């Protein structure tokens, strides 16, 4: 009788090389998804900052339309920031939160602005004193925790100097801008309303 050789069963499981290939693929996919998530977060921050800048500009324009003048909030010249004493005063006026008195600028107490409220400036948006428990705003911040900058046409001639391009004139009465994540002019992350 003839006997056939018994076939050996192959060992089950993965070899070390196969495991390393699978792990490498997983690492590459994770890195790609992390990059995509980071890009999506950056885009969301730019969008939030752009929306807040436009909302601030529209609030000042609405104040100007209602009272036929720009708010007087203690800015030096035609430039200001949305933090510090002057920025807090501007926001107080625009939000209709001034103390009731004869010297009120927003006598009708109209809330011209509608901004996202946060407890810390690091997340951007409108921040109130004492982490949100105060009645007076501390400032309005971009998505990177920096104040917005603005220029107002205090001469009412419809011309403002472009803060990004020396010598250029912007035909507008109010411009609002942010230097973006890097806090510097240029770099492709600046936000502007003109």
TrEMBL record:
Keywords: Membrane, Transmembrane, Transmembrane helix. NCBIfam families: IV_pilin_GFxxxE. It comes from the Bacteria. The chain crosses the membrane at residues 20-41. This is Type II secretion system GspH family protein. InterPro entries: N_methyl_site, Pilin-like.
């Amino acid at each position: 009788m003839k006997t056939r050789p018994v076939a050996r069963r192959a060992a089950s499981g993965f070899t070390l090389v196969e495991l390393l290939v699978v792990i490498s693929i997983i690492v590459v996919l994770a890195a790609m998804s992390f990059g995509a998530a980071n890009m999506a977060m950056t885009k969301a921050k730019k969008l939030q900052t752009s929306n807040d800048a436009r909302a601030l500009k529209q609030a000042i324009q609405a104040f100007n339309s209602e009272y036929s003048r720009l708010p007087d909030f203690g800015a030096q010249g035609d430039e200001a920031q949305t933090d510090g004493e002057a920025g807090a005063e501007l926001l107080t006026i625009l939000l209709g939160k001034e103390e009731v008195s004869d010297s009120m600028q927003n006598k009708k107490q109209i809330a011209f602005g509608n901004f996202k409220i946060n407890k810390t400036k690091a997340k951007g948006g409108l921040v109130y004193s004492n982490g949100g428990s105060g009645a007076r705003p501390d400032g309005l911040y971009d998505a990177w925790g920096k104040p917005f900058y603005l220029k107002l046409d205090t001469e009412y001639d419809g011309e403002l100097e472009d803060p990004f391009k020396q010598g250029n004139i912007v035909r507008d009465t109010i411009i609002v801008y942010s230097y973006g994540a890097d806090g510097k002019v240029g770099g492709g992350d600046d936000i502007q309303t003109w």
